[in-house]
Amino acid sequence: MKKSALFSLLYLLTLSCGDKLAPVREDAISPTVVTQPTPHDTDDPAIWIHPEDATKSVVIGTDKDSDGGLFMYDLNGKIIKKSIPLQRPNNVDIAYGLLLDGKKVAIAVTTERETNKIRIFSLPDLVAIDGGGIDVFVGEVERDPMGISLYTRPTDGVIFAIVGRKFGPSGTYLWQYQLSDAGSGTVGANVVRKFGNFSGKKEIEALAVDNELGYVYCSDEQFGVRKYYADPAKNDNTELAVFGQNDFKSDHEGIAIYKKTATTGYILVSNQQANTFVVYAREGDSGTPNQHTMLAEVPTSTVECDGADATHVALGSQFPNGMFVAMSNGMTFHFYDWNTVQKVIDSQKK
Question: Per the database record, which ranges form the BPP domain (predicted)?
Answer without folding.
Answer: 19-345
